[in-house]
């Protein structure tokens, strides 16, 4: 397993203090110039003083933990911060996901759960410094490493390089982002005034450093001499482990990874004994809500699951683990004064069975809600002429064309990432990275050939980053003849589509047996104040769950994840609408349970 942001995709960064610290990731700025900070009474800020950090001239050790605001409901931000303080941490680290903040070129969103300024200010209120990692690339097991998919509309695009189409888009993004954070602190060219950092594993460090930036290291298991190696490439400087991996992430079809709590704490203790600062990645992982989870692609493509529990110090729902209490005990001995009491844990609810009593077939939705794009050639998802200038970012695309007779359907690897194939409305098989050929049954006359292609998540790091266009990215052949003259339907399943679906005619009672693709809906009735719960999809095969219009994420019977986290603040007293898009075989009920199940565990190796 490659670590996030491994040596092939080097991440560069900066470190800034005002009421918080910033970590910046773009190479094109001159980081060697350090300007003294003179704001709110601070004149020195964070500096290096030989082998230690100095904050306002006094020795300072960073005890940090990663918490991503976009993976946690806004109503729970403060709860997670208070738990960081109770564990003994003094610093919070977060990424800034470009693809959420600029979903369409030139249109920005820093509201509600994306209110970065409010998040940072809340951290300051709760006594935490902040390491801000604003991108443009963040990795983080996040779709395309946080880069917006509309960049891929440019056929010549080279992500994470000095290619003008990329750097111009980054400049436009930073021009909007930095005025938000500069009053709190920011980039040299735009007003940043303090120490900058890079973050790499050992292999990355061996490829060279960035002049004027402090190098830090990432790892999970402390190899003998690793921190001394940092001294050899960067003499007489503070040592910091910027990402100490407290667990690991999961992929569909694999196990739920865990990392031994005692081994983790013993390693943290060893790091601190060596005098280094540390950031725990993750302190609290949260959830890849919606379609935002990334993927891996080395020897094969593997999509990440919806949960970002990560076997971190806090669970996906913010509950304490044994790691929390063991770390709290360790940090209390380091800090030397009593820590705040840990906040009470909110109880979870089991609301029982939810009956999905209505359904509407995808084939019935098409003529009502969706207008097709007509194209002689197949078009990838990002190049579809819709949604202003961004094309389609997530979800599914349906490709329809007329064919005559049966034969061999060959994808030549042009299906990204997975296609269900239908003749008229009859399911005949799938095409994906491993299955690239399919036999179509013979039949009379012309028939509709339909390919429902799912974007399962773009890889978030590695050499394949520039190859993440989704849908049909090239020709598909039937009996050696390329398919032509398509009707292409965009199924991004964004809020406007889901709202239209609610009011469309055609919903009917669910029959005793039905094979998808179809939408199903039911009601979750809550008598009292809503609480967090988990939805168990036993009996369902593969799809997406929406509650009150919010996309909770993907489910898939191959596991490991078997429950989806449903935060209490997203529920309301009384009636709550549950909608499921099921690709294959549907159940009749889902269960609301008070305990998550993330699958068969396997220790990280």
If you had to describe this structure to a student in words, what would you say it looks like?
- With 605 residues, this protein is of the alpha+beta class.
- The chain has three domains: 11-335, TIM Barrel; 352-360 and 495-603, Jelly Rolls (Sandwich), CATH 2.60.120.260; 377-484, Jelly Rolls, CATH 2.60.120.260.
- The chain is built from ten helices and 37 strands.
- A hairpin with a 3-residue loop joins β14 and β15.
- The longest helix has 18 residues, at 164-181.
- The N and C termini lie close together (9 Å).
- The model is unreliable at 1-42 (pLDDT under 50).
Please tell me what the overall shape is: globular
Q: What's the name of the CATH homologous superfamily of the largest domain?
A: Glycosidases
Task: Fill in the CATH topology of the largest domain.
Answer: TIM Barrel
Can you name the CATH architecture of the largest domain?
A: Alpha-Beta Barrel
Widest β-sheet, arrangement of strands = 1-9-10-11-13-6-7-8-2
Q: Tell me about the largest β-sheet.
A: 9 strands, mixed
Contiguous low-pLDDT stretches (5 residues minimum) are: 1-42
Helix content: 10-25%
Strand content: 25-35%
Number of domains: 3
**Rg value:** 25 Å
Q: Structural class from helices and strands?
A: alpha+beta
Tally of helical runs:
10
Q: Which CATH first-tier class of the largest domain would you pick?
A: Alpha Beta
Task: Please tell me the overall pLDDT.
Answer: 90
**Strands, total number:** 37
- The end-to-end span amounts to 9 Å
């Amino acid at each position: 397993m490659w670590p996030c942001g491994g040596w092939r995709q080097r991440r560069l960064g900066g470190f800034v203090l005002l009421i918080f610290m910033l970590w910046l990731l773009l190479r094109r700025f001159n980081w060697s110039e350090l300007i003294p900070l003179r704001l709110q009474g601070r004149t020195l800020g964070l500096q290096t003083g030989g082998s230690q950090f100095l904050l306002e001239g006094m020795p300072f050790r960073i005890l940090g933990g990663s918490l991503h605001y976009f993976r946690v409901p806004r109503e729970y931000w403060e709860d997670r911060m208070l738990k960081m303080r109770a564990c003994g941490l003094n610093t919070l680290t977060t990424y800034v996901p470009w693809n959420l903040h600029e979903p369409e070129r030139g249109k920005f969103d820093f509201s509600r759960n994306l209110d970065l300024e409010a998040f940072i200010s809340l951290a300051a209120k709760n006594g935490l410094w902040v390491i801000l990692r604003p991108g443009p690339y963040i990795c983080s097991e996040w779709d395309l490493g946080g880069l917006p998919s509309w960049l891929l509309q440019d056929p010549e695009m080279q992500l994470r390089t000095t290619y003008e189409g990329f750097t111009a888009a980054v400049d436009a993004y930073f021009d909007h982002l930095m005025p938000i954070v500069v009053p709190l602190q920011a980039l040299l060219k735009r007003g940043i005034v303090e120490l900058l950092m890079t973050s790499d594993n050992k292999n990355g460090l061996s490829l060279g450093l960035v002049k004027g930036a402090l190098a830090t290291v990432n790892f999970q298991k402390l190899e003998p001499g690793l921190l001394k190696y940092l001294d050899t490439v960067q003499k007489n400087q503070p040592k910091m482990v910027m990402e100490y991996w407290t667990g690991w992430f999961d992929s569909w079809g694999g196990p739920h990874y865990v990392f031994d709590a005692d081994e983790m704490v013993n390693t943290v203790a060893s790091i601190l004994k060596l005098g280094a600062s540390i950031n725990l990645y993750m302190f609290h992982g949260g959830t890849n809500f919606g379609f935002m989870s990334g993927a891996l692609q080395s020897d094969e493509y593997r999509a990440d699951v919806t949960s970002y529990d990560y076997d971190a110090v806090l669970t996906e729902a913010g509950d304490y683990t044994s790691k929390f209490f063991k770390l709290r005990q360790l940090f209390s001995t380091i800090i030397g004064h009593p820590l705040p009491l840990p906040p009470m844990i909110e109880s979870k609810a089991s609301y029982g069975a939810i009956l999905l009593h209505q359904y509407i077939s995808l084939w019935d939705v098409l003529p009502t809600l969706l207008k097709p794009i007509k194209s002689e050639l197949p078009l990838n998802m990002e190049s579809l002429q819709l949604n202003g200038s961004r094309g389609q970012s997530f979800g599914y695309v349906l490709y329809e064309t007329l064919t005559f007779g049966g034969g061999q359907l060959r994808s030549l690897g042009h299906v990204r990432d997975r296609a269900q194939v239908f003749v008229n409305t009859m399911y005949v098989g799938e095409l994906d990275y491993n299955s690239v050929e399919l036999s179509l049954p013979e039949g009379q006359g012309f028939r509709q050939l339909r390919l429902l292609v799912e974007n399962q998540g773009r890889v978030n790091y590695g050499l394949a980053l520039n190859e993440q266009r989704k849908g049909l990215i090239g020709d598909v052949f039937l009996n050696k003849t390329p398919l032509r003259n398509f009707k292409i339907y965009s199924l991004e399943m964004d809020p406007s589509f889901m709202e239209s679906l609610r009011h469309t005619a055609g919903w009917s009672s669910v029959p005793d047996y039905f094979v998808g693709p179809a939408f199903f809906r039911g009601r979750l009735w809550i008598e009292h104040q809503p609480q967090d719960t988990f939805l168990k999809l036993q009996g369902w095969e593969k799809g997406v769950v929406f509650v009150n219009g919010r996309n909770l994420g993907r489910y898939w019977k191959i596991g490991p994840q078997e429950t989806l986290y449903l935060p209490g603040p997203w529920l309301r007293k009384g009636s709550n609408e549950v909608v499921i898009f099921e690709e294959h075989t549907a159940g009749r009920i889902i269960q609301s349970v008070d305990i998550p199940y993330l699958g068969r565990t396997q220790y990280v190796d």
